[in-house]
Design goal:
Blueprint (H helix, E strand, L loop, with lengths): L28 H11 L4 E4 L4 E3 H17 L7 E4 L6 H12 L3 E4 L6 H10 L4 E4 L3 E4 L15 E6 L9 E5 H14 L11 E4 L8 H9 L4 E4 L2 H6 L3 H7 L4 E4 L1 H4 L12 E5 L14 E5 L27 E2 L8 E2 L5
Parallel strand pairs: 3-4, 3-5, 8-14, 9-10, 11-12, 12-13
Antiparallel strand pairs: 1-2, 5-6, 7-8, 13-15
Helix pairs in contact: 2-3
């Protein structure tokens, strides 16, 4: 019996990858932001209720803060700890500045215990930590190099809660993050896409990976991200009237939180994304609100026994982090096709 060699035999592939040729080309989150800023330079990109930034201004602010990080030695391949108060423009400028400098951001809630912050920043080998007022504090050794991030560089490292042991970091590359963002652009509100007239709630902790969906639902389309303070979100019921006052039109949340809001809280909401439970069209809202339920990636996490070799001249951020979302597209349960 003759066994064909791998070189002459086409490798089988799962049926869900048959349309992979239709996927957008790999890119970074910065590519997405810059493309949006080029298309909608004057549109509002970020508004915390105290000040508002257009897309042109947001890119300028991110570039300026990236310069601060670079002067502190941060470069491509490094990690930057981010611990700023929620509900502020500064928090998102810090995140985008870290990405612009070529680093991966590592978020910790400002009100989390110092012990957790120490564990997260030490395990991720954060070169610096960004605090309130965009103050940069050295935390470790910067090993990165100059240059813009590539699709294969890490965009963020978010740690688990640690409820079953020591928190574990999960790194997500620009390639995977951008593919997720582009996949959502093809799923939601296809007839009337999100645009500059929309305002997207940023109510989730940036230390929770679903917060990335909020950010890029706005910045992929030219909409405005509206940060809500965590103290307000935790009240539950008080967030409903705030949504009305701030003109929110896009919300990603959980059904248990939405159930606390008054019926008119979703009057202006065009897209409501639920995570974790089966979603139904919201019968309490008077508006034709499209509701979707999100699932998780089907590609299992890659857990190397040893650190993956870094790109040439780049030091891997840390050795023990598992890497999930290794695929190029997410799996969805009950996606919304209006």
């Amino acid at each position: 019996m003759t066994i064909p060699s791998p070189e002459t035999t086409a490798a089988p592939y799962p049926a869900q990858f048959e349309a992979s040729g239709l996927a957008p080309a790999p890119r970074t989150l910065l590519d997405i932001l810059h493309a949006t800023a080029k298309t909608h330079p004057s549109a509002s990109a970020l508004d915390d209720g105290t000040s508002a930034l257009s897309y042109a201004e947001l890119v300028t602010a991110a570039d300026a803060f990236a310069g601060t990080l670079r002067r502190a030695g941060v470069g491509r391949g490094d990690t930057v700890g981010v611990r700023l108060p929620s509900g502020t423009n500064e928090l998102y400028i810090a995140i985008l500045g870290a990405l612009t400098a070529g680093a991966a951001y590592v978020p910790v809630d400002a009100d989390d215990p110092d012990e957790r912050a120490h564990v997260v920043f030490s395990e991720s080998r954060a070169a610096v930590v960004v605090g309130q007022g965009l103050v940069v504090t050295p935390a470790g050794t910067a090993r990165g190099v100059g240059g813009d991030p590539t699709p294969d560089d890490d965009a963020w490292i978010i740690f688990t809660s640690g409820s079953t042991g020591t928190p574990k970091g999960v790194a997500v590359s620009h390639r995977s993050a951008a593919a997720f963002v582009d996949a959502e652009a093809r799923l939601f509100l296809q007839r009337e896409p999100i645009g500059p007239a929309d305002r997207v709630l940023a109510g989730l902790s940036v230390a929770f990976d679903a917060s990335c969906e909020e950010m890029w639902l706005a910045w992929r389309y030219g909409a405005c991200l509206i940060p809500a303070p965590r103290a307000l979100v935790r009240t539950g019921v008080d967030l409903g009237p705030w949504l009305i006052a701030r003109g929110i039109t896009v919300v990603s949340t959980v059904p248990t939180l939405a159930a606390l809001w008054p019926a008119d809280a979703l009057e202006n909401v065009r897209l409501l994304i639920f995570g974790g439970r089966p979603a139904r069209r919201n019968s309490r809202s008077a508006s034709p609100c499209t509701t979707a339920r999100c699932g998780t990636p089907t590609v299992p996490p890659r857990r190397p026994s040893s650190p993956a070799p870094p790109a040439s001249g780049v030091t891997a951020p840390f050795g023990s982090a598992s890497r999930s979302m290794a695929g190029t597209s997410p799996s969805w349960t009950n996606p919304a096709f209006p």
